[in-house]
Design goal:
This protein has 522 residues and is an alpha/beta fold. Among the domains are: 152 residues, ANL, N-terminal domain (Rossmann fold, 3-Layer(aba) Sandwich), CATH 3.40.50; 98 residues, GMP Synthetase, Chain A, domain 3. Helices cover 29% and strands 25% of the residues. The protein is built from 16 helices and 25 strands. Strands 2-1-10-9-11-12-13-14-15 form a nine-stranded mixed β-sheet. The chain has a four-stranded parallel β-sheet with strand order 4-3-5-6, covered by helices on one side. A four-stranded antiparallel β-sheet has the order 16-17-19-20, with no helix packed on it. β11, α11 and β12 form a beta-alpha-beta unit. α1 crosses α2, α2 crosses α3 and α11 packs across α12. It starts with 7 loop residues before the first helix and ends in an 8-residue tail after the last helix. 49% of the residues are buried.
């Protein structure tokens, strides 16, 4: 099932025809069958169409994980429109930027984010229609909006190169970039989702990661393409997740290491029922061998590590379950993120010369194949910088290959910080902090953190004769940036070490904090 589907709308069209009474989605005590999901998606599609949404127009969605996301997502598919899921952890100005940048015609907002909507409503003039789940004094409710549409399929066609997802990745330069993923990009990964993840119409798939992430939305949609039932986790609560596995007989899930770590701390975690589990995929940030070993022992299922980016439609390398050897000769593979997935190519390149580096040497990871994005929305120069004329996408990650073709991620070329599975770009944080009247110069680096793997720390050069406290700087950041991007601590420094061309020597700043530890990113 699902192998003849070639676009997003085809997922609901096909499964509503073939298994209309089987459950597609579960969220808390709500369930929705494929037939119901299709009917709801048709109604929302017709309401969007009446609001002026046409082929390849953008529709923005700001809410936590829920059934509503999928109704809007598939409604967009039925119109050949593009859903833009916004990271709900972002601060109001960041949300406004994405809504405006995407040129969304409609914005759908969940009840938790009405304060953000109220803060930005005057700054998002391009949006024709704003819809609020649960209702609002000024804007139509999602309930009324979706019920205004007829339950007939609008019947739009969607071509292979049409954009299906637009997800925003944090900009290295401080501006988020809209990653355009096409039907082709997404369906390029379906063969290995069937073959390697073994998704099928018997799968019960846990959707715990935020749907604005490829590890949430991409993972969920891949399961659905192959007919799986999805259990949606709205608020990540380790105790609840442990109990839901047995309750819903969950077979598959994608989790970030920090969540596995919290699940292992749940009282009596070893007494819960995991007999239904077939696969836990993990990735997006470093995992300690300790957490991995305890997870394998506790959850007694296959573990698979994936490495990828939004720009590569998610997973591009996979460390297979048989390579998770905790005691034997293959133990060193636990530090690897595996081998390139079927259908994709990978090189480790000297970024200056463009030549492959010898086995064992560190270079930049370049990948090529059907999963590489169409490009960045309205940023042709950024697209040209990241995808060369031969179609190789430059990931910005540094890694080396061993003689057997396993990839070992070494560090971020761009000094990125990965905190609890979220990417933090120092340049963006530094730009925000430089607006503080007492800061003359600042560098942001990742320092080790037991809970999140690493967290941002600001190294601040103060302006002469201006008093400022650590708390003042942290709260200044919190007004301007998402919480996970804000420095947790501030260190004072007389001058930042820079190279002759003025680039801050981040490596030197990081070194004392990482002494005796390995800093690695998956």
């Amino acid at each position: 099932m699902g192998n003849n589907i070639s676009n997003i709308a085809g997922i609901v069209r096909t499964h509503a025809a073939n298994q209309p009474n089987n459950v597609a989605l579960i969220q808390g005590d709500r369930t929705q069958t494929w037939g119901q999901l299709y009917e709801r998606s048709c109604k929302v599609a017709n309401a969007l169409k009446a609001a002026g949404v046409g082929s390849q127009d953008r529709v923005a969605f700001l809410d936590k994980n829920g059934i509503d996301h999928f109704e809007v997502f598939y409604a967009c598919g039925l119109l050949n429109a593009v859903s833009v899921d916004i990271n709900w952890r972002l601060a109001a100005p960041e949300v406004a930027y994405i809504v405006n940048d995407s040129q969304a015609k409609v914005l759908v907002v969940g009840p938790d984010f009405v304060p953000i909507l109220d803060a930005i409503a005057d700054d998002i003039s391009g949006v024709k229609t704003i819809v609020v789940i649960g209702g609002h004094a000024k804007f139509p409710s999602y309930e009324d909006f979706s019920n205004s549409g007829a339950a007939t399929d609008p019947g739009s066609e969607s071509a292979p190169e049409d954009v299906a997802f637009q997800l925003y990745s944090s900009g290295t330069t401080g501006r988020p970039k809209g990653v355009m993923l096409t039907n082709n990009n997404f369906f390029a990964l379906i063969p290995f989702a069937a073959e390697i993840w073994k998704f099928s119409d018997r799968t019960v798939n846990m959707v715990a990661m935020p749907l604005f992430h490829i590890g949430g939305g991409g993972w969920a949609t891949a399961g659905m393409a192959l007919g799986a039932k999805s259990v949606i986790i709205r608020d990540v609560n380790p105790v609840e997740i442990v109990s839901l596995i047995g309750k819903h007989r969950i077979t598959h899930g994608f989790l970030v290491p920090v969540l596995l770590q919290f699940m292992l701390m749940v009282p009596d975690v070893d007494k819960a029922d995991y007999s239904s589990l077939e696969l836990i995929a993990y990735g997006a940030s470093p995992i300690s061998e300790d957490v991995l070993a305890s997870s394998i022992k506790t959850f007694k299922t296959n573990f698979m590590q994936v490495y990828g980016l939004t720009e590569t439609t998610g997973a591009t390398t996979i460390l297979m379950p048989e390579d998770h050897d905790l005691t034997g000769p293959k133990r060193k593979l636990l530090r690897s993120c595996g081998k390139i997935v079927p259908g994709m190519q990978l090189r480790i390149v000297d970024a200056d010369t463009g030549n492959d580096v010898p086995v064992g040497d560190v270079g930049e990871v370049w990948v090529k194949g059907g999963q590489v994005m169409k490009g960045y929305w309205n940023m042709p120069e950024e697209t040209a910088k990241s995808i060369n004329s031969d179609g190789w996408f430059k990931t910005g990650d540094a890694a080396y290959l061993d003689e057997d073709g396993y990839v070992y991620i070494f560090d971020r070329v761009k000094d990125m910080i990965v905190s609890g599975g979220e990417n933090v770009y120092p340049a963006e944080v530094e730009n925000a902090l430089m607006g503080h009247p007492a800061i003359a110069d600042v560098a942001v680096i990742g320092v080790p953190d037991e809970k999140w793997g690493e967290v941002p720390m600001a190294m601040v050069v103060r302006k002469p004769d201006v008093a400022v406290t650590e708390d003042e700087i942290v709260s200044f950041a919190k007004e301007r940036l998402a919480g996970f991007k804000c420095p947790k601590t501030v260190t004072w420094i007389d001058a930042l070490p820079r190279n002759p061309s003025g680039k801050i020597l981040k490596k030197d700043l990081r070194a004392p904090y990482w002494e005796g530890r390995t800093r690695k990113v998956n």
